[in-house]
Amino acid sequence: MEEHGFVHKSVLLYETVGSLNIKPGGIYVDGTLGGGGHAYEVCKRLGGGRLIGIDQDADAIRAAGERLAPFKDKVTIVRSNYQNIENVLKEFKYRKSRRYLSGSGSVLYQLDTASRGFTYREDAPLDMRMDQRNPTTAADIVNGYSEMELFHIIRDYGEDNFAKNIAKHIVKARAEKPIETTGELSEIIKAAIPAKVRATGGHPAKRTFQAIRIELNHELDVLENSIDTMIRLLNPEGRLSIITFHSLEDRIVKTRFRTNENPCICPPDFPVCVCGRKSMGKVITRKPILPSKRRTGGEQPFKERKNFGYLSVRERRNKVMASYIHGTGAEKLAPSEREERLQRKRRQDVGRSVKRQHRIRRNQERAMYMDLPYVIMLTLASICTLYLCVNYLHLQSAITARMHNIEAMEEKTGKNAYRK
Question: Residue 124: left if φ>0, alpha if ψ -120 to 50, beta else—which one?
Answer without folding.
Answer: beta
